[in-house]
Write a structure and sequence with these properties.
A seven-stranded mixed sheet has the order 3-2-1-4-5-7-6, with helices on both faces. It has a single domain, classed as Vaccinia Virus protein VP39 (Rossmann fold), CATH 3.40.50. A hairpin with a 6-residue loop joins strand 6 and strand 7. The radius of gyration is 15 Å and the shape is globular. With about 180 residues, the chain is of the alpha/beta class. It contains eight helices and seven strands. The structure holds S-adenosylmethionine. S-adenosylmethionine binds next to helix 2 and helix 4.
Amino acid sequence: MSTLSFLLEGLRNIGTTGTITRSSPALCTAAIDRIDFATARTIVELGAGDGVITRHILERLHPDGKVIAFEVSEDLCDDMRAIGDPRLVVAQDSAEHIRFWLDKIDADLADHVVSAIPFAALPPELGNRIVNAARDNLRSGGCYNQVHYSLKTKSYYERAFGKVEAKRIYLNLPPAWVLYCKK
Ligand SMILES: C[S@@+](CC[C@H](N)C(=O)[O-])C[C@H]1O[C@@H](n2cnc3c(N)ncnc32)[C@H](O)[C@@H]1O
């Protein structure tokens, strides 16, 4: 999807996209920091958009690995399907249905979860359901990395995971945060 189309998609659905720009290379790199790609085989991505972070994951993912990328917009899912990587499972679904999609690929638990879901724009009940589903389906020792433009919903991750480390990423428009949690 072109940058202009992405901007228009963002404006059309601002209540679910939470942004009109995609993550910069620096933010994508920070979003997948802490993932041990040598051992990871199942990575779950929430709010994948047109796959900008997904591509960074695929570059480093083991040949036998899988990424389940959740996205609710049909157009953005079409962009991800066009990536055409057999390791990518595009889940055109709401992110709380992680268990269903892990079962689909016969995976017990996710090794790591990366999320860019704009929780501040979603109802708190839905946000907490998604974060809890991510935690419940994450293996012990796995990381949960959350991309955000504010720290408004930091308490969601503190409640689910306990300790949360926040890192500011200035090389992004607007400057963003990545919140790192561990199960
Ligand atoms: C801030 S954008 C991030 C896009 C891309 N990952 C990036 O980093 O540029 C958030 C995305 O989350 C998606 N989204 C919102 N609610 C969702 C939900 N309940 N389940 C899955 N995706 C959702 C939106 O459609 C949007 O594409």
